[in-house]
Amino acid sequence: MMCVTAHPDDEAGNFGGCLQLYAGRGVETCVVCLTPGQAATHRRSAKNDLELADLRRGEFAAACAILKVKHGIVLDYPDGQLHRMEADKVARDLTLKIREFRPQVVLTFGPEGGVTGHTDHSMASIFATLAFHWAGRSNRYPGQFSDRIRPHRAQKLYHATANFTLPDRQPVTPSSTTTVIEVGQYLETKLRAFKAHTTQAPLFTMFESRMRQYGGQERFHLAASMSSKLVQPETDLFAGVEDQE
């Protein structure tokens, strides 16, 4: 299972329950984070963006260890500027990651940008969705192919969604929920993983309050699937997934 995010802490805050749940079931998990979060408001001791990026890479690695993520990858795109990036370049990089890791299931944000409506979250959704579709096509980035790298079709793509919104934020229109994953038993570990991002300590109280209220479930919209069946309510991201070589 591969999860595509925008910033260090997204993996814990938005997907931490599922990452723990499926790792515990023996699923190999990977998180690809597009930026090192160097434009964050909360910076702890960092004197500049480079120092902050280094701190946040370390925090990301610590959180991934807590969540039992086997592969944690932070790319070097600029935080807060994903909407200015050349779409083909970012999609190409993510296509290669999918072809290398060969996931059955891909998770990312919804195009609305999650409950915060963050522009970087929206762009992560768009780039990951393009890569999900293009990774399986032999006419997309054929220069990537080798004895080790070849086209790969992931079987399901999920966009994270929610059944709540945040006050005093720009309006968001989340996708409908098709899949509800019960993750309440992992809530404490999810909170611990988020708190591994110590530069973001001013957010801890707000995040914990929200998770105590809503964190027993992680909700998703099934955005694409190799199955042609009508979408039915799901309680398992791997429902209908077949073994692959």
Structure commentary:
With 245 residues, the chain is α/β, with parallel strands linked by helices. It has one domain (2-225): LmbE-like (Rossmann fold, 3-Layer(aba) Sandwich). The protein is built from 6 helices and 7 strands; from the N terminus they run βαβαβαβαββααβ. The chain has a 7-stranded mixed β-sheet with strand order 3-2-1-4-5-7-6, with helices on both faces. Strand 2, helix 2 and strand 3 form a beta-alpha-beta unit. The chain is globular. The two termini are 15 Å apart. The mean pLDDT is 96.
Quickly name the level 1 CATH class. Alpha Beta
Q: Please tell me how large the radius of gyration is.
A: 17 Å
The SS-based structural class is alpha/beta
Largest sheet: 7 strands, mixed
What is the assigned CATH homologous superfamily? Answer: LmbE-like
- Using the coordinates shown, work out and report the CATH topology: Rossmann fold
Q: How many separate helices?
A: 6
- Tell me what portion of residues adopts beta-strand conformation: 5-15%
Enumerate the spans where pLDDT stays under 50 for 5 or more consecutive residues.
Answer: none
Number of structural domains: 1
Topology order in helix (H) and strand (E) letters: EHEHEHEHEEHHE
Mean pLDDT: 96
- Sum up the overall morphology in one term: globular
